[in-house]
Write a structure and sequence with these properties.
The complex is a heterodimer of chains A (739) and B (242). Chain A has four domains: 31-116 and 223-267, D-Maltodextrin-Binding Protein, domain 2, CATH 3.40.190; 118-221, 3-Layer(aba) Sandwich (D-Maltodextrin-Binding Protein, domain 2); 357-461, D-Maltodextrin-Binding Protein, domain 2; 528-738, Orthogonal Bundle (MetI-like fold), CATH 1.10.3720. Chain A contains 26 helices and 20 strands. In chain A, the strands form four sheets. Chain A has an eight-stranded mixed beta sheet with strand order 4-1-5-10-6-9-7-8, sandwiched between helices. In chain A, strands 14-11-15-20-16-19-17-18 form an eight-stranded mixed beta sheet, with helices on both faces. In chain A, strands 2-3 form a two-stranded antiparallel sheet. In chain A, helix 2 packs antiparallel against helix 9. With 242 residues, chain B is of the alpha/beta class. In chain B, 43% of the residues are buried. Helices cover 39% and strands 25% of the residues of chain B. Chain B is globular. The two termini of chain B are 36 Å apart. Classes of the chains: A alpha/beta (739), B alpha/beta (242). Chain A binds chain B through residues 634, 636-637, 639-647, 650, 654-655, 658-659, 662, 735-739, and chain B through 48, 50, 73-77, 80-81, 83, 85-92, 100-101, 104-105, 133-136, 149-150, 153.
């Protein structure tokens, strides 16, 4: 028996080890001659970025793969920090680096460079109204760069830096180019110095706000780096590069990834039936999160109808509005439908389909406000949805004729609903937003808000595709024409945009009646109760599965740790269990969940990831509870059992554990209650649990009080039920204590 | 029945048992006395390896229980122990306490075990307590149940580790009476105790321990009436003064 207990533990350990092996595959250093490991830093579009499949994609990746094909070796891409690339070459963990890396003398001391494959210029990105015209103007200013890049070298004052000589010049180094640009937008720095291609993308994405200046002095050559002295690989790469330049592959890749006027029709697969469409589901009724947690709305219905008419499948991806156009340029999206207004600025970055909807911007204000037109908003506080037409209309700028007062404060919200909440709370004087959502907002805040149309700002909504993708554009236009012709389009307009009345709540003078109406509106008319019921199911499901996993793991860990008490010295098992408990208790469960979901599960199987994450987390706490419960049983009980000829395992099973359970149950119950409440963070990995359901109802009804209180009450009832069950169990177990 | 050869036990640097040798015959009742800290309890607990001896040999029924091949659990089935603090299983009723080991170890059927348990409880006058939990018994009753629990194993010998030290004075008698009956019936017993009256009346032989050795042994008359060693005299005079 003693041996078999050890064996069971050993098997559990083995299982854990196998599982661990699955999640953390040991990278085998098998360096077959025909596989080379290439490092990159996928933060430098269009040369390298993370593609749709989560793998690094971009011009550089395509180039190195083409070279590999030409020379007959296989390429394995590893994505890492830019700073670590050269170091990894020297240690031998990488064979080559292709990362938009500029040839410099300093780098030549550490690595060998191939022939240059691209010539790039450094660019200075500054706000549209900046007076910076050259790199020299940046002396003494705050500059943001991507750490370790040529921009970093150019801007950092040093002995051999003839341009930036002012030692007080402050250089902020960011890991990502995008972060540098965000800082520029927030006013944290005066300029960003970065390579020309990403600079163009960034300026395109920040229409009107940023401009870009080329620095002619800093022309750079990009080349592939290999370990110093690795002449064999260098020759292969140079020969491959020459080959793909000769047979036209290289030019094709330039056209496909970097673009320019020479861009040819991309060699699209004719069998490609899936179109990746991006949206930002925060703009009802055009796009919002549906009952099933998937984006829904007029736009979704339109693009799906077009897809049906034209015979392609539509895959919807929900992202920030700001990122949509950038994702089109990088190719991770094929089209965007997001209530997106056709503007000249956007036309520079994307091609638009025929317009499918005409919208007017509206000003939403408190009922008693004296604002009557957009011009009245000069000098006031305005809330807008970040990156929308409303944002453009209200932000003071050179080409803004209406809002001219520099004191006008524009608050940019990620969600239109948040902008309205801010208006209701008095944080802003007005919200400027498209007419349809505006109507919804006003309807659901009946009597408190009013709305004015701004006729000067009539807008056309259209579907955006990647610049030059005429094939897809034609398909979309043809599909749009078809669905307009056969009446599908009108039916969708009626269903999504005009039929607001069904979700509108009835107004009433009676305060009680109003409350009941409101209750009905929030939970019944908009199907809030269904969402909450589904969410409750998810919460309970995850809690139960994680709880069981936690108890099983905790029990195993407790027994492992108890080997220490029995042997009176640390054992391998007790050390493993101790380390597990130490690590899990020492890190936030939120971080564990994100690691489990994003790192280990690669953003798939969110529910499984959540169950595992919470189970593993709970196991650490349960282990300590169970261990304490077992240690609390008098040693005499073990001696009594052993003196009767029971083995250690039998004594545990028949005598110690039945008594330990009594000690453990209250603490275990507490742990389970904590677990139930802790699952409320699963919304972060896109699981619609009870909390997230409440959040959805808030963003649908623009009311926070009722949904959130309802969620709180449901959690409370859940915990109350658990407490009652626990009390019954405890009473039963205390039977033997009765005197 | 029990032969101890050169038994030693260290707790770290502390030598508790320095060199113990003794024979205990079948049917003999041996009482171990001595000042506290002399190693009496450790000696007793070494006999069934509840305390792991540091060195030495212990033969029980002819087999060296210190041998690697010997199954200590099998030995303990026939070499029961009664503890100072009873160590009844608190989560089980009296009857279940008695039946647990014989039934789980498949030494007898549940029906036989129950019959035997009820019979033994009857003998110690606790039949009506069969369905009570240990928490509902007095100390004396608990210890009588503990003795019955050891008897359930049908042992060849029983070790008593200060069986009356944790009892209120008025309950000592009822436990000692049960032990006297057992001794009379010819059970092999090794008893560590401070009850000199019991030793004098019941013991076949008395061992006096001090400083990790058995310093004197003999019949009760020899030890109590005519002690040879100074250490023994001092101890006995201190105890009897009380």
């Amino acid at each position: 028996m003693k041996k078999s207990t050890t064996r069971v533990l050993a098997m559990c350990l083995a299982c854990l080890a196998v599982l661990g092996g699955m999640f953390f595959p040991v990278s085998s250093p098998a360096k077959a001659t025909d596989v080379i490991t290439v490092g990159t830093n996928a933060e430098f579009p269009p040369f390298e970025y993370i593609g749709n499949d989560g793998e690094p994609d971009g011009f550089d990746m395509a180039v190195i793969k083409a070279i590999g094909e030409a020379e007959g070796f296989e390429v394995k891409i590893t994505n890492m920090e830019f700073k670590s690339l050269i170091a990894s070459l020297s240690t031998g963990s990488l064979d080559a680096v292709i990362a938009g890396m500029t040839v410099t003398d300093e780098r030549r001391q550490s690595v060998d460079f191939s022939d240059s494959y691209y010539t790039a210029k450094q660019c200075i990105v500054v706000p549209a109204d900046s007076d910076v015209t050259s790199l020299a103007d940046l002396n003494g200013k705050k500059i943001a760069v991507q750490e370790g890049t040529t921009g970093d070298l150019l801007c950092t004052p040093a002995e051999d830096n003839e341009v930036i000589t002012d030692a007080s010049t402050e250089v902020k180094r960011f890991k990502k180019g995008t972060d540098a640009v965000v800082t520029l937008n927030n006013g944290g720095v005066d300029a960003v110095v970065i390579d020309k291609n990403p600079a163009e993308t960034f300026v395109a994405n920040n229409e009107g706000k940023l401009k870009m200046i080329e620095d002619e002095t800093s022309t750079e050559e990009y080349a592939i780096a290999v370990k110093k002295g690795d002449a064999e690989l260098l020759e292969k790469i140079n020969s491959g590069l020459a080959k793909i330049k000769e047979d036209g592959t290289f030019d094709k890749l330039v056209a496909e990834y970097i673009g320019g006027e020479t861009e040819e029709e991309p060699a699209e697969d004719t069998e490609k039936l899936v179109v990746n469409v991006g949206t930002n589901a925060e703009f009802p009724p055009f796009e919002y999160m549906g009952d099933n947690g998937e984006p829904d709305g007029f736009d979704m219905a339109v693009i799906k109808a077009i897809g049906e008419a034209e015979g392609f499948e539509v895959k919807i991806t929900n992202m920030e509005f700001k990122s949509l156009i950038a994702s089109l340029s990088t190719g991770s999206l094929d089209a965007v439908i997001a209530g997106m207004t056709v503007t000249d600025e956007r036309k520079q970055s994307v091609d638009f389909s025929d317009s499918y909807y005409t919208a007017t911007q509206c000003i939403v204000v408190a009922k008693d406000s004296d604002v009557t037109s957009l011009a009245d908003l000069n000098g006031k506080k305005i809330a807008v949805q970040e990156g929308t037409t409303g944002d453009l209309l209200c932000t003071p700028g050179e080409d803004n004729d209406v809002i001219t007062d520099e004191n006008t404060e524009v608050k940019r919200f990620k969600k239109g609903t948040d902008a309205i909440v801010s208006l209701n709370n008095g944080g802003v004087d007005a919200v400027v937003i498209d007419k349809n959502p505006a109507e919804n907002f006003v309807a659901s805040n009946s009597g408190k808000l009013k709305l004015m149309e701004d006729d000067t700002s009539t807008e056309e909504y259209a579907i955006a595709v990647k610049k030059g993708d005429t094939e897809l554009l034609e398909k979309i236009n043809s599909g749009l024409a078809k669905i307009k012709e056969d009446g599908t389009f009108d039916a969708l307009v009626a269903q999504y945009i005009e039929d607001n009345t069904s979700t509108e709540k009835e107004a009433s003078d009676n305060i009680v009646q109003e409350f009941i109406n409101n209750l009905k509106y929030v939970f019944v008319d908009t199907n809030g109760y269904q969402l909450m019921a589904k969410g409750l199911g998810v919460t309970i499901g995850i809690s139960i599965c994680a709880g069981i996993l936690g108890i099983v793991l905790g029990f195993i860990l407790a027994l492992m740790k108890l080997t220490e008490t029995r042997k009176k010295r640390k054992t391998v098992m007790s050390r493993i269990a101790g380390a597990y408990i130490d690590i899990i208790r020492g890190t936030p469960s939120m971080v564990q969940l994100l690691i489990m979901f994003m790192v280990i599960f690669r953003s798939r199987y969110a529910v499984v990831a959540a169950i595992l994450s919470f189970g593993i987390n709970s196991g650490a706490y349960v282990a300590e509870n169970i261990r304490a419960g077992i240690l609390a049983v008098d040693v005499g009980q073990m001696e009594g059992g052993r003196s009767l000829g029971f083995t250690y395992g039998e004594t545990m099973r028949y005598i110690i554990l039945p008594q330990a359970i009594k000690n453990v149950i209250p603490a275990l119950g507490n742990e389970m209650i904590t677990l139930v409440k802790e699952t409320s963070i699963v919304g972060y990995v896109a699981i619609v649990d009870l909390t997230k359901a409440g959040d959805f109802i808030v963003s649908r009804t623009y009311q926070a009080f009722l949904p959130l209180i309802a969620v709180a009450i449901v959690y409370y009832i859940l915990v109350k039920i658990m407490t009652k069950i626990l009390a019954v169990i405890e009473r039963r177990l205390r039977q033997s204590d009765n005197r | 029945m029990i032969i101890v050869k050169d038994l030693k036990k260290d707790f770290g640097d502390l030598q508790v048992l320095k060199n113990i040798n003794c024979h205990i015959e079948k049917g003999e009742c041996v009482v171990v006395i001595g000042p506290s800290g002399s190693g009496k309890s450790t000696f007793l607990r070494c006999l069934n390896r509840l305390e792991e001896p540091t060195a030495g040999k212990i033969f029980f029924d002819g087999n060296n229980i210190m041998d690697k091949d010997s199954d200590i659990n099998k030995v303990r089935q026939k070499l029961s122990m009664v503890f100072q603090h009873f160590n009844l299983f608190n989560h089980l009723t009296v009857l279940d306490n008695l039946m647990l080991a014989p039934v789980k170890q498949k030494l007898m059927s549940e029906a036989d075990a129950k019959k035997k348990a009820m019979g033994l409880l009857e003998r110690v006058g606790l039949a009506e307590k069969a369905d009570n939990y240990p928490a509902q018994l007095s100390g004396g009753q608990k210890q009588r149940v503990a003795i019955v629990r050891s008897l359930m194993m049908e042992p060849k010998a029983i070790l008593f580790d200060e069986p009356t030290s944790a009892l209120d004075p008025e309950m000592v008698g009822e436990v000692l009476d049960v032990m006297k009956v057992l001794a009379k019936e010819g059970m092999t017993m090794v008893v560590v105790t401070h009850e000199m009256g019991f030793a004098r009346e019941v013991a076949d032989r008395v061992l006096f321990m001090s400083d990790g050795y058995i310093t004197e042994e003999g019949t009760p008359e020899e030890i109590f009436d005519n002690p040879q060693q100074e250490r023994t005299k001092a101890f006995l005079s201190a105890v009897t003064q009380k």
